[in-house]
# Entry
Amino acid sequence: MDYVVFIAAMAALIYGADFIIKESERIALHFNISHFVIGATLVAFGTSLPEMAASMMAASQGKVDMAVANVVGSVIFNITLVLGIVFMIAKSMMPDRDLFSKDSAWVIVPVVIFFIMIQDGVISRIDGILFLLMMVSYLFFLFTSNKDELECELDEELEKEKFDWKKSIVLLGIGFVLTIGGANFVVESGTSIARNLHVSEWIIGLFLISLGTSLPELVVSLVAVKKGNAEMSIGNIIGSNVANFSMVLGGSALLQPLTIDLVATKFDMLILASASIALLFILANKIYNKAGGIFLLTILALFIQNSFS
# Structure
């Protein structure tokens, strides 16, 4: 029964986040907020809502292992699984934007800051505030980036729809109920599954929850590939990972200082660093093809094999 609850709660969490994103965009358009502003904020916050809800709920319940593992696992899956699949199936990727010169810092700096912060085995509330300040820096970066690149993130269908306040309020309410309720049941059922399988909450957060909360990124990336905009998925993943470190870990740490067993999690941290360096190498050498995909999926295979061996 726990597995059924977990799957249903994960679906509710993801669909709820989607409702919130869509309705927020619709309301912003109604008030004539610029495409650039909407695009910038959605890039930063959108697909990380499930991770944020799940980790903050776990932190509020004192399940700090699950909160941190969700972020570590999500970043690993975003890079290795999502981009690995994108590079494997995309026919050709020739980004107009120089991703290495403009975005590479946001691939590696959040990871470096994360590793510095966990050297004492805890992400404190002060660390959480610093993470949130990093989010402010990222938003500033987005607002000074090429506006056209951000505007293409918008859902053009929403602009054509007639605005209805009642509908938007109802859907926003449903979105928040599904997201918060789903996050609560994801954590509760995940904890129960961990106990039944005699595995740690870290493993449940690292795989079950993080893989589930990475589904929005995977769906967005696959849709982008289908529309011939595969390069857009790279920016989405970079932005989502920055949001995972800054907003998700930062917000969770404000609720409850997050302790980390550096010895027990050393391989997972090594994979996190390896995946980030691999993405940096791919950006530097423009390996946006099957070779890059195989490279990332190999890291994913090593991650899974070691975790369950």
